[in-house]
Recover the amino acids of this structure.
């Protein structure tokens, strides 16, 4: 692993012209991922980037690493194949909300459940961009799009809930405009052993512009976003004057020093706890009553597939009774005819 | 004159479906056919006729929703483009095996794989030779204009129910995206439950009392019975071959050479024919409208009196195999085509005609 290699973001850029729309959030997320890769201490040739179909899935063309632009919805299965065939690689899956959660929903949950060591970066723009503006499985109820001109009548997925439902071990959330933060969580995702899912809220300037304005308006975002760090108090607000407390079985936002709440009441974030209760509550937090949670929400240690697979192969090879063809033929339902 | 409009082929698929009394549509966006669902959603047929329009989470979901809906004896359809149709082939094979009537529209784009979003006719084999597993055939209608796209929606449903089998409308990115004048069909009401009972009462899941139970399935573990089922399918396909061939012949009466082309390439070949005729080459055009059933007899008949055939296709040479089978070695059969999203020019086709057939 870590030889003494130093890279910069530029080392991960390819010479291909980037064909995302000007102003698309994808540009910033790519920078964040490239910065993260440059500092992880892995060799350039150890990275493989796998994508499905969609705007964000054009990603491998823009990377100087090995890449694989695959089939709509199937990136998780294909990335799993790459990782199991060559466990030394650092495999990154780039998917959008349509690719990973609509057509690829099945592969997504099973990959997370299997806990194979992949980094899934989920670009969530809540719309189908490449096919020009139809609603996606994360579009909010009532969303007006080309295929829902009178508003959708479906409930959206919250990706983090799917990760928890599949007993996932790592979930983080970031937003395209905050490149530094996206880089941090991508680095944490890469370090986690098992399937890491990073949801990046991404603005599609063409078909869903301003989808995250309510969360991300510079004037109000200090009150509407909370950046979580394991082991630290859950504080937010322009001067960290607000905090999260646990009351009546749920999270509640309070102002420290008001209504009898003190800093001691404010919760400390525990990303490492196996229990999903707090993580679920954090994932579910939504405006207006609560801020939206960013950062590594869940990061727990658990057996991961590729290592388990290698262990099992080694164990069986050591302990097997069958070592040659004769052993095999004489195993199971065989008998001698006398 | 009926209702005259200037419309895109894909929009007409949606409009014609509503007008022919369709009950339901299940789809998923893919270029170059997303306008089908978008038009349906804008038209709000659920308010006007009660037709259901649903955006599924994938083509796999849409085809299986169609499978379920078809089992109720209603007029239902889906549309997609090449990679999406590949995803649907499992369901198509099951629908054929369960003998359920329904309609698919394939607005073809270039492949293989993700290929390109530009037009193509490279799904000919997939459409007429099965595509999915097992001995089945789809009735395949190949419109060459926006008008035919309109007309074949109704015809497609008619054939699907006549033979209790899935039907495919095989169009492409040219016909789906181009705007042409079209005379829209008159509105037909959706079938009532009584009509469905009369048409498909033996098997349709109608939710009515006192009807004999029926299980829709393509499974039969007893091989002798499964062979019997297959005999039934083959007899049906034979009857379709005998009764449903549709084609158009232009200038074939005095022709020395005949071009065979379907869909959008037939439109281009028609222009080539005019250019060639101006040059004094006596060439005609045979345009198969049904790709299965293929106009075998018509080609056999022509093979007895022309000097050669040129199959013109937007693929690497697929239909040419069926032309060769029908010609059966009597005269030369050549192929010319562009593919991967490229469209042949009329001039290129004339040159191919001259070099491959006349000069050769
Ligand atoms: S359509 Fe939207 S998501 Fe796609 S590249 Fe343009 S801005 Fe980005």
């Amino acid at each position: 692993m870590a030889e003494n290699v130093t890279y910069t973001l530029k080392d991960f850029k390819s010479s291909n012209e980037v064909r995302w729309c000007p102003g698309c959030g994808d540009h910033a997320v790519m920078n964040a991922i490239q910065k993260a890769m440059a500092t992880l201490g892995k060799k350039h040739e150890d990275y493989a980037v796998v994508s499905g179909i969609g705007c964000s899935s054009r990603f491998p063309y823009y990377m100087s690493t090995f890449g694989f632009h695959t089939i709509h919805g199937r990136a998780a299965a294909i990335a799993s194949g790459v990782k199991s065939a060559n466990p030394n690689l650092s495999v990154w899956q780039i998917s959008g909300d349509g690719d990973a959660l609509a057509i690829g929903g099945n592969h997504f949950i099973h990959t997370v459940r299997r806990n194979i060591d992949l980094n899934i970066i989920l670009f969530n723009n809540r719309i189908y961009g490449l096919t020009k503006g139809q609603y996606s499985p994360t579009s909010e109820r009532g969303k007006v799009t080309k295929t829902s001109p009178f508003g959708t009548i479906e409930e959206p997925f919250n990706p983090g809930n799917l990760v928890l439902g599949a007993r996932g071990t790592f979930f983080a959330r970031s937003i395209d405009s905050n490149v530094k933060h996206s880089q941090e969580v991508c680095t944490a995702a890469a370090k986690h052993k098992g399937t890491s899912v990073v949801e990046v809220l991404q603005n599609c300037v063409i078909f869903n512009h301003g989808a995250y304005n309510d969360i991300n308006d510079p004037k109000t975002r200090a009150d509407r976003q909370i950046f979580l760090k394991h082991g630290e108090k859950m504080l937010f607000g322009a001067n960290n004057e607000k905090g999260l407390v646990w009351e009546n079985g749920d999270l509640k936002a309070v102002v420290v020093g008001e209504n009898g709440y003190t800093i001691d009441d404010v919760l400390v974030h525990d990303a490492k706890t196996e229990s999903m209760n707090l993580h679920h509550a954090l994932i579910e937090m939504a405006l207006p009553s609560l801020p939206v949670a960013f950062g590594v929400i869940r990061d727990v240690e658990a057996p991961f597939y590729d290592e388990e697979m290698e262990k099992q192969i080694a164990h069986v090879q050591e302990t097997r009774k069958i070592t040659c063809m004769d052993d095999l033929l004489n195993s199971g339902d065989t008998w001698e005819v006398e | 004159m009926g209702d005259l409009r200037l419309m895109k082929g894909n929009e007409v698929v949606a409009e014609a479906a509503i007008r022919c009394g369709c009950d339901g549509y299940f789809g998923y966006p893919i270029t170059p056919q997303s306008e089908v669902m978008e038009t349906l959603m804008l038209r709000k047929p659920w308010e006007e006729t009660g037709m259901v329009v649903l955006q599924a989470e994938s083509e796999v979901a849409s085809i299986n929703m169609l499978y379920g809906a078809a089992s109720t004896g209603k007029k239902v359809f889906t549309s997609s483009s090449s990679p999406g149709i590949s995803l649907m082939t499992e369901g198509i094979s099951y629908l054929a095996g369960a003998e359920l009537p329904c309609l698919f529209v394939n607005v073809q784009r270039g492949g293989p794989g993700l290929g390109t979003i530009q037009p193509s006719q490279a799904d000919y084999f997939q459409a007429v030779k099965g595509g999915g597993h097992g001995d089945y055939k789809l009735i395949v209608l190949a419109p060459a204009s926006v008008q035919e796209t309109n007309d074949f929606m109704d015809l497609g449903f008619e054939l699907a129910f006549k033979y209790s089998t899935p039907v495919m409308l095989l169009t492409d990115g040219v016909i789906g995206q181009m705007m042409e004048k079209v005379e829209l069909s008159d509105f037909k009401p959706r079938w009532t439950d009584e009509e469905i009972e009369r048409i498909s009462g033996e098997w349709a899941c109608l939710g009515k009392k006192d009807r004999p139970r029926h299980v829709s399935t393509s499974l039969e573990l007893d091989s002798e019975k499964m062979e019997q089922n297959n005999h039934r399918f083959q007899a049906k396909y034979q009857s379709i071959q005998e009764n449903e061939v549709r084609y158009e012949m232009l200038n074939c009466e005095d022709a020395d050479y005949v071009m065979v082309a379907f869909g959008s390439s037939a439109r281009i070949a028609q222009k080539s024919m005019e250019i060639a005729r101006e040059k004094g080459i006596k060439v005609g055009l045979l345009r198969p409208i049904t790709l299965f059933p293929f106009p075998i007899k018509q080609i056999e008949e022509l093979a007895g009196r022309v000097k050669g055939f040129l199959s013109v296709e937007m693929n690497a040479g697929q239909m040419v195999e069926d032309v060769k089978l029908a010609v059966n070695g009597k005269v030369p059969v050549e192929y010319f085509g562009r593919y991967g999203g490229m469209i042949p020019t009329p001039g290129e086709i004339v040159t191919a005609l001259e070099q491959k057939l006349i000069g050769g």
User: Anything to note?
Assistant: Residues 276 and 350 of chain B are 6 Å apart (CA to CA). Chain B has a mean pLDDT of 95. Chain B has two domains: 3-198, 247-358.
